[in-house]
Amino acid sequence: MYSQGLTDAKGGDEPAELLAEFQAKIDREEKIEPRDWMPEAYRKTLIRQMSQHAHSEIVGQLPEGNWVTRAPSLKRKMILLAKIQDEAGHGLYIYSATETLGVTRDQLNDELLTGKAKYSSIFNYPTLSWADIGAVGWLVDGAAIMNQVPLCRTSYGPYSRSMIRICKEESFHQRQGYEIMTVLARGSKEQKDMAQRALNRFWWPSLMMFGPSDKDSKHSEQSMKWKIKRFTNDELRQKFIDATVPQAEHLGLTVPDPELKWNEQTGHYDHGEIDWNEFVNVIKGNGPCNKERMQARIKAHEEGAWVREAAQQYHANKKSEAA
Ligand code: FAQ
Q1: Per-residue pLDDT reduced to its tens digit, 141-166
Q2: What is the atom index within ligand 1 of the atom nearest the CA of 236?
Q3: Which residues are CB-contacts of 149 (< 8 A; sequence separation ≥ 6)?
């Protein structure tokens, strides 16, 4: 994900007793706090996952920002603006939590803007209609919650605490997305068709948010042992499918997967194969909007330079006044 050094997950030559005591602490469900001893690989794994998460919250504002000026009413516009501001706040909490691991915001931002850091694949898809904003809230926030509720119990204290507030806000986001879909699905034929097309566009990319299948996930095994992750990618994806299919049925919409079928024996839905080539292509930078998203972040960073300079100058003035 990053250049060697910042998040390369290889550990150093760490004493076996310290490693054993660290694992025992995790096994006792005690939180690891910033000043506690931790293996270098644990620290780097957290920086990798948490910064990817923070970047996703920030880049994730862009697909929704696309509809602020075109939301169908003043009320819808206010709700959308509030949601986008919440996502910015989530990014800031998680960046702050990541900084407790000994990296700076500048370093993390630099990794994003130079294309070394990943962010969630989902935000490289366009939002073509108002119904896509409903689908983002319902499906994207729905998938985010499914992933993030277990992260409230992740082993690193600052990450776990940031997730508690974030999950409360994400639940509200999911409800507002579902409400947009409900209004459209119960509206005119054109509105219902628009809702169906949004579901068709966002279903598979939402399933990809959970990451590669367990057999291809390179970090899951170690992250589960360290209780950074509490469930595997496939387990969370299945939970999401099981929770979401009845919601689609309630809306009278069809999930675009001909192989989707309730399995009495397993008590879960069976589903079709995800197009993993598409997933790999998107995380390599070749999705429909990767370039546009990065350009927007670089432009915002450059245009915000004067604000950073002014803040630094203000801080320097205050310091010299106090001296
Ligand atoms: N997109 O070995 P694993 C949101 C990468 S927040 C891009 O399974 P891991 C809120 C992965 O980094 C959404 N890359 O990795 C919102 C790794 O690459 P690396 C973000 C992906 O870490 C809503 C490689 O593939 N949420 O939506 C993706 O154990 C609406 C191998 O994968 C989080 O970040 C992907 N989908 O498991 C905002 C939650 N999946 O680093 C606005 C925290 C995998 O070796 C609007 N993160 N990769 O080069 C996690 O739970 C985990 O990091 C996973 C991946 C589950 C995402």
Answers
A1: 999 999 999 999 999 999 999 999 99
A2: 56
A3: 163, 167
